[in-house]
Amino acid sequence: MSLEVSDLDVHYGRTRALRRVSLSVAPGQTLGVIGETGSGKSTLARAVVGLVRPSAGRITVDGEEVTRYRARQWRALRRRGVVQYVFQDPLRSLDPDVTVEDSIVEPLLIQGRPRREAADRARRLAARVHLDEELLSRLPGELSGGQRQRVTVARALVTDPRVVILDEPVSALDAANRVRALELLKQLRDAGTALVFISHDLGSVAGVADRIAVLYQGGIVEEGPARTVVNAPRHPYARLLVGSAPTLRSAAADRAQREELRELLQNIGGPA
C-alpha cells in the first residue's frame, strides 16, 4: 500500500478530533474522504503529512512507518517528494512575491536538480494541468482562483510523488475547470499515484474515487467501493450525504426524508 492509516487518534487539547481512523490507499487508487466541516477531514490530511502529531495509531507512507517521525525526518521525507499535499486555499499556500514558475520548481531545486531541468519540467506540468505557459512569469495575485489551484496541483506533482493528499481541490473552481481538474485526477490515478481526495461534496468525489470513506464526528462510519456507498449507503449520515447531493439525489429523496435522517443522526450520536 502507498498509504496505510491504522487506529489513528488525534487530540487538540482535550478535544478528540479523530477517533480510531483506519484506511488504506494502493498505488493507482483514489480514496474519497467525505464529511461536513468539523468532521476531521483536514486533521486527517495534516496528520498524514506530518503537520499534526497523532495521539495514537500508526501511519505508513510508501512503506515507511512515519507516525513518530521528528521534524528533521519529516523534512527529509518531504524533500524526496514521496508525499505531497494540495492545500484547500491556493492563494494562501503560494508565496505572493514568487512567480508561478519559481513556486513550481522550488521542490526540485531543494532536491538539488539543475535549474534548467526544473524549468523544463515546470513547463511540461503547466501544459498537463491546462495552465498557459505565459502565466509562469506572473505572481499568484495576478491569476484567477482556478489558475492558482492548477499551480498548486502542478507544484505537488513536480516530484513524482507516490501519495497526493488533495484537500477540497475543486471547491473554488467553476464548472468547466472542475471537469478539467477531475479529469487530471483520473490521469494521475491511471499513472500509478495514490490519491486521497478530501471533500464535503460527494458529487465531485463519486466520479473519480474507487473507494469512499465517510467521516462523521471524527470517525469513519462507512467505507467501501464508491458505487456501493453512493447507491446503497448503510449509515444514516452517509444516506443524508447522498440525499443532499444534487447530482446523486433521486426524486424520492425529498426534504421530509432528509429531515427524518437528521433526527436519526441526533439520536444515535457520533462514532464510539
From TrEMBL:
GO terms (BP aspect): peptide transport; transmembrane transport
Keywords noted in UniProt: ATP-binding, Nucleotide-binding, Transport
Domain ABC transporter: 3-242
Homology family: Belongs to the ABC transporter superfamily.
Protein known as: ABC transporter domain-containing protein
Annotated Pfam families: ABC_tran (PF00005), oligo_HPY (PF08352)
Keyword ATP-binding: yes
Region forming the signal peptide: none
Source lineage: Bacteria, Bacillati, Actinomycetota, Actinomycetes, Micromonosporales
UniProt-listed PROSITE patterns: ABC_TRANSPORTER_1, ABC_TRANSPORTER_2
